[in-house]
Write a structure and sequence with these properties.
Length: about 270
Amino acid sequence: SYSPDGVLLATGDRNGGVWVWEAFSGNEFHTLRGHGQGITAVGWRADSNLLATASEDGQVIFWEMNNGGQVKKITAHGGGTLSFDYARNGEFVTSGRDQKVKIWKADFNLKKELPTFDEMVVEVAITNDGKRVFTADWNGRIEAWDANTFEKLGELNGNPPRIADRLVALQEEITKAPEATAAARTKFEAAGKAVAEARTALQKTISERDAAKALIAELKTLQTTLAQDLARTEEERNKLAAEHPNRQSELNQARERLEAHRGETTK
């Protein structure tokens, strides 16, 4: 791995050896010894002054480049550390044979351990801003994680179809597009017809409701009129009933006068 400034090149071998080379001349710059098993990953801090090496011995060792001395050694994963990557802010991420992924602070303390994976995570990467972590497991599944909340953000297709296959699939979709459009138009027209029928039924219901309201109002008016007529009729009947005795007396007096007149006429 080249240092960010392009000055140095770091390499590791299966025996745990690490070499740092001058990129321009190819001369050996440092030979670093500290791992007991094969080197699986190397990574540079953004300032190019610190080199990290991960190994099958489970260790991650940090080396400063002035004299090649060890700055820090951490036991990252039991069974072996498989992958390592630095963020620009100094935080870093590791994965191991223990099927775990760990995010570390710039001061080498553990920040968070992601949930145990179903398979070994063979590669990890963290974005330069330290906000996203990507993991790739033994089965080829690639997942994205939020480095602060540790929430899973999504999954990528690690084995996408070939471009030729994509073009064939796209052509099939284009061929089927008119049929899909026609089916959608049929559904749209049917929906429009249903809406029109519903609108007509609604208008009919509104008309019937208005007619019923008018009839009710008319019946109420007629009821009021009948009640008034009945009241007047009752009043007239009562008046007549009150006048009946006087009329009967007058009738009897007239009958007596008529009888008297008839008697005088006979004489």
